[in-house]
Amino acid sequence: MLLSIKDHLLLLFVTILGLNCYSQISFEKGYYIDNSGQKVECLIKNIDWKNNPKDFEYKLSETSDIKNTNISYVREFGIYNDSKYIREQVKIDRSRESIDNLSRSSEPIFSEEKLFLKVLVEGKANLYLYVDENLRRYFYNKEDSNIEPLIYKRYNTLDYYYIKENVQFKQQLWNDLKCSIIEMKRVENLKYKKNSLISFFTDYNRCNNSDFTNYNENKKRDLFNLSIRPRLNNASLKIENTRSNFTDTDLGSKLNFGFGIEAEYILPFNKNKWSISIEPTYQSFKSEKTTNANNISGGSLTTKVAYSSIEIPLSLRHYFFLNDDSKIFANVSYVFDANLNSSVEFINTNNIVFSTLDIQTRTNLAFGVGYKIYDTYSLEVRYQTRRELLGEYVFWNSNYQTLSIIFGYSIF
What we know:
Layout: H1 5-17, E1 27-34, E2 39-45, E3 55-59, E4 67-70, E5 74-79, E6 83-93, E7 110-122, E8 125-132, E9 135-142, E10 148-149, E11 153-156, E12 163-166, H2 168-176, H3 184-188, H4 194-207, E13 213-214, E14 224-241, E15 249-266, E16 274-278, E17 281-292, E18 300-321, E19 326-339, E20 343-348, E21 353-358, E22 364-373, E23 377-387, E24 396-410
């Protein structure tokens, strides 16, 4: 059985998602320090961990075999000019953060755990981060002192309607990291957020004329893209009535143009491989067809469709990097549709409107694959699954489908 173009596109979409593109996650120059204190220069597989790792893969050279080691054997590892992790036995509060599961106690519940902490700022005063899904905890120490948790906890009051915060971390920093340029108001305004804390530790180290490293500076990325995306659409429409077939019409396929503007946010983990986007797009479909209808005056009926809308796809996209300048991608979209005074008319031979149906659309899915070069130009082929245009009518069904070639140009 021969596959249609749409079938080929879906097959390509699945194939791309199944690819193991090694070039997108590379082995980069780094090191690890084992339990005996020996420093081993190596190449570490940099997957830009979203959660703090417990193990990692490495190679001793470009041509050597891939090995795996973990927190039991490594007390520190790092990727040069990128990131650094240290192993430490620390107190950590794993109190739940979701509103429905907040504790009624303001006090943290600590347990002792051996963790790889991510180093954010390293100097006279050090700042560390631990992430495990929705749990984010910050730690600090000064010079060679023990690493302590920065205490912060959200909790519910007795009436369950008012959320409070234990912000003891502000008192900790005011007591331990005093400096002439850091006033009480600065500490009071601190947020238990990465950028706020990094800024504070950076200022403290500068105030003490300390050599320091801000590892987050190496992570600055262009995380937002705005693109204009004109497209060529090949759209088809079928209409049927479940109670009588004299109005059933296959209006065939029509070529038309559309235009969209896409706002894309690159998710800040996994080496910029994932993104989410929203893409308001204007599209239209106009067609008419005359068919025989013996029970209609004149013996024929003309179906006339005038459909235009603003589609709003919400997309999840995955990139596969080919080299520094080019990449392929696959995305899946959930498409909302706001029609613009659209309708279907049935007109008899005497040019009298026999019936008019207002178009009321429903959501549908879309799948796309594409290629992007220099982070500027892109070309995508996108298939949209069946969209119902007559969703408000009990005895009417429609099948609107689109295959698009989308050209993209990123403004920034």
